[in-house]
Amino acid sequence: MTNQAIQVLQGPYITNTYGAGIQCQGPTRNFTPYVTGSVSAAKPYEPYYMDPVYDVTDNFGAFDEDGNDIGDGILDNPGDIIFSKKTRTGQKDNYSLGVGFSMTWSTPTDKKMQELCKEAASANIELMKQQTANKRLDFEIARLKNCGELMLKGIQFHPKSKYYSVCADVLVNNPPGHTHPHYHKIPNVSSSVSETQNATP
């Protein structure tokens, strides 16, 4: 007899970590397919065997009242085999096959704690996004300030440099002593020429 059993081991809850010590455990589904089988056989395989038939005659050894031979209870030819007959052994191979699956569903029992953990995770994600945006803004302002100050001093990367694009989008609109937009007053040349001609003796 062969006993076979299927053991299903429960795995831990799936835990998601969102930073700031926030961890939430979600439901876990375990699906376990299995296939079992066994084969048993005897070696060597012998479907038949020859069963000897012994001589059990008892016709001699004693006499009746008339003097005829009769049996005396002792085999006349002990151990003699008359013939052998073919007898089935009943030996056979055994096969078994089992196919199936085991499925379990594990769910935390405190739903309120799960909802609070999800809310905390969402709030922490929004906070991380805002902090990332703030750091990006600080970086862009620092880049703008440093690039502008260097441009005022006439310092910049060569256009063929791979770092030229760092300050490529920075514009300096109002350098010292310059307003933008600005205008220059152009004197009237024709008036000056007429006045000069009139002053000639």
Mean pLDDT: 81
What shape does the CA trace take?
rod-shaped
Number of helices: 2
Q: Could you state the order of secondary-structure elements as H and E? A: EEEEEEEEHH
Strand order of the largest sheet: 1-2
Return Rg in Å.
Answer: 55 Å
Give the structural class: alpha+beta
Low-confidence parts, pLDDT < 50 over ≥5 residues? none
Q: Give a count of the beta strands, DSSP E runs of length 2 or more.
A: 8
Bin the helical content.
25-40%
Strand content: 25-35%
Distance between the termini: 144 Å
Largest sheet: 2 strands, antiparallel
Descriptive report:
The protein is α+β, with helices and mostly antiparallel strands and 201 residues long. Among the domains are: 8-36 and 107-156; 42-92, no CATH class. It is built from two helices and eight strands; from the N terminus they run E-E-E-E-E-E-E-E-H-H. It has helices spanning 111-152, 189-198; strands spanning 14-17, 23-26, 28-40, 48-54, 61-63, 69-71, 81-88, 94-106. Strands 1-2 form a two-stranded antiparallel ribbon. The protein has a two-stranded antiparallel sheet with strand order 3-8. The longest helix has 42 residues, at 111-152. It is rod-shaped and about 185 Å long. The termini are far apart. The mean pLDDT is 81.
